[in-house]
Amino acid sequence: MHQQAPYATKPFYIGLPTMNIDKIKKQIERQQEKKKTKKLKNSAVIVSRNGIDTIASGLVNPSSNAKTGDVLQIKHVANEQSPTQTIKSKKDDIVCGDCPLKGKVCYVNPISLNASWKSTRGQAPLDEFPKVKKSVRFGEYGETVLALDFDFFKTWVSWIKSQGLRHFGYTHQWKKAATNKQQWNKYLMASIDSISAKNAGTTSAKLKDFANSLGWRTFRVIKDLSELLPDEILCVNTTHGVTCNDCGLCDGKKSPNDKRKNIAALAHGPINKIKTYLKA
How far, in Å, CA of 102 to CA of 106, rounded? Predict the structure, then answer.
């Protein structure tokens, strides 16, 4: 029986340059990152938790907020109803807790939130924080402490700081035992206002002192400059036109040794809301 002769030539792959596996992996990662970037919309649901969707806006386009500057705007909205409908049906406690400014006095215009809510319907949550190199405003609307898991939030803030960026945020939930136990005060400011003080049977100055005694730095809304206290400075956006993106003072109390002053600001927001607040 005739035997087949052995190969007279070497296999085609002999002598070809060795493939660099690490290089190929990096190429694949770059391609995947490009695909993600192409799919990224300006607003996206970061996480959905406790009936609340946490939405980030400004992922692609710059923020139009002149006071904050170009930062990621993080809002917490009910996932079953638009923000305006949630307020009309008086179900906004799911995102605002017991904030006394809910409804007619809140400086946020809920109509402006509807577009982000609508554009993200049907989106699956990312279930990870967006690694977009912008500073972050937590709580453009809604309570961050009600919407986000504390460990998730801390990891997010750590990443923000690692990129040389800033974060800022506020909460009316600063008196809650759970809020203090988890030490949100290291990252957020305690919101103080005359309506909260009136409901508590005290003054906003004394309420500020109480928050300070619990380890918080405060952001206090005042009606007149004469109310400014020695341990407060007026928001530098008012005094110097500095944006929140360039400021960084509203990032909580980093440690017991953090001696930075509290922040005060004149009533702000839509004119009709300011008038209502000043009358309250």
Answer: 5
DSSP string, the chain: -PPPPPPSS--TTTTSPPP-HHHHHHHHHHHHHHHHHHH--SEEEEEEETTEEEEEE-SSSPP--TTT-S-EEEEEEESSS-HHHHHHTT-THHHHTT-TTTTTT-SS-THHHHHHHHHTTTPPP--S----SS-EEEEEES-HHHHS-HHHHHHHHHHHHHTT--EEEEES-TT-HHHHHTTGGGTSEEEE-HHHHHHTTS-HHHHHHHHHHTT--EEEEESSGGG--TTEEE-HHHHH---HHHH---S---STT--PPEEEEE--SSHHHHHHHHH-
pLDDT for the residue numbered 280: 77
CA distance linking residue 1 with residue 272, whole number of Å: 102
**b (16+ CB within 10 A) / e for 187-205:** bbbbbbbbebbeeeeeebe
**Stretch among 7-16, 80-89, 186-195 having the lowest mean pLDDT:** 7-16
At 212, phi and psi to the nearest 5?
-60, -40
Write the single-letter amino acid at 171. Answer: T
**pLDDT average, residue stretch 110-139:** 94
Mean pLDDT on 213-241: 96
| Residue 76 φ/ψ, nearest 5 degrees | -120, 115
